[in-house]
């Protein structure tokens, strides 16, 4: 018995000694120099951030006065329920709030589990060895959607609080249910980079588990964040290059967003040169069927974590790749106001096209209806074969709409399935004596107000003292029906 106790004590001593040696080795790991990160992202500059409060105020006014009335009248956002078939790409929420319009650029991290997404955010923000560093490990660690944003002090915010705060841009997430809100968490960090951008870390994709087991619509939540992201980092590592059904579905959701996607091959310093070349080729081979673009996507090869690169690896190459990715991130931050105005204008164009199409469907329905006609049968015939009645061709012929901007015809079958055609008014009837016509106001916003607002930023004018001659601020809408 004494021998057994002595053996156990020896084993315990060896384990403690090994643990102490591992901790000592970990403390000896050299940290990577962060000077290139601070200079590329301009974190060491003392100059104040640009004040775009005047531009944002004017942008909100244009949206609420010129775009939203037509959007609500023709229920555009119900068409967005079929967004993959109707309009792939970025969009405003079902009820765009001021929080969405004024929100900072969003950077979304996607990819398989344990490829280094959370470690990359820790590295960019310098959160390692702090109480608020994102948990990392070799096993699947991130089970929540984590929003890292700026705040006066380190603070954790529950998902139900984020959704209840109308001043934030996350209130529409309530539609995904309470189970999801329990898996949503916000972290406020007083970091200079977060004054200009927001990071979103997502749960890793696990191919051998059904996403339905998460308890909330994972793919729908991902689509919500994809639609609002300004930059999307899809992270892989050398051990997780295979593409399964869940990752294939993710790339299908990214259709139309190829210009915002950046593919990252992380942990590249763990491979020798020959192995790295093989892994790089295997990654391209796996992704080729999923990305339907004429040019191959840009793949950044490096190791994004605070520890120094492994010895005998391509340090200079990895450093240049990292700087290139940081420059992409900084470019999105620098162009945030231009991108937001261009996005609102693109949204207005889509709303206008939708209103013109609904108006054309309604006009055709009224033309075909007689005293003895069955309204349901008449409209069903129109919806089933709109080309027979030249619905889309008439829009192209009579308006300055590009054929490449027209939504999918199939989306309108579902749209009119829940929105009876008789519940809409013709565009010619959407005018008032004091407010003018909805169509004229949105066309003015598309052709004059938003381009002028964008041009005022490019000319370097102070956005908080914009001239009313340029933006039309305070101008009352003109009404062609008003008597002189």
Q: What helical percentage do the residues reach?
A: 40-55%
Strand order of the largest sheet: 3-4-2-5-1-6-7-8
Taking all residues together, what is the mean pLDDT?
81
Count of DSSP helices?
19
Shape descriptor: globular
State the end-to-end CA separation. 111 Å
Number of strands: 10
**Rg of Cα set:** 27 Å
Low-confidence spans: pLDDT under 50, at least 5 residues?
A: 14-28, 81-89, 462-484
Order of helices and strands: HHHHHHEHEEHHEEHEHEHEHHHHHEEHH
Oligomer: single chain
Name the structural class: alpha/beta
Strand content: 5-15%
Q: Please outline the major beta sheet.
A: 8 strands, mixed
Overview of the structural elements:
- This protein has 484 residues and is an alpha/beta fold.
- The protein has 19 helices and ten strands.
- It has helices at 2-28, 35-40, 53-73, 76-79, 83-86, 98-102, 117-125, 159-164, 178-181, 218-228, 245-253, 273-287, 315-334, 336-368, 375-384, 391-398, 409-418, 438-458, 468-471; strands spanning 106-110, 145-150, 155-158, 184-189, 198-201, 231-236, 261-265, 299-301, 431-432, 436-437.
- Helix 3 packs parallel to helix 14.
- The longest helix is centred in the last third of the chain and has 33 residues, at 336-368.
- The radius of gyration is 27 Å and the shape is globular.
List keywords for this structure.
19 helices, 484 residues, globular, 10 strands, alpha/beta
Brief rundown of the structure:
The chain is α/β, with parallel strands linked by helices and 484 residues long.
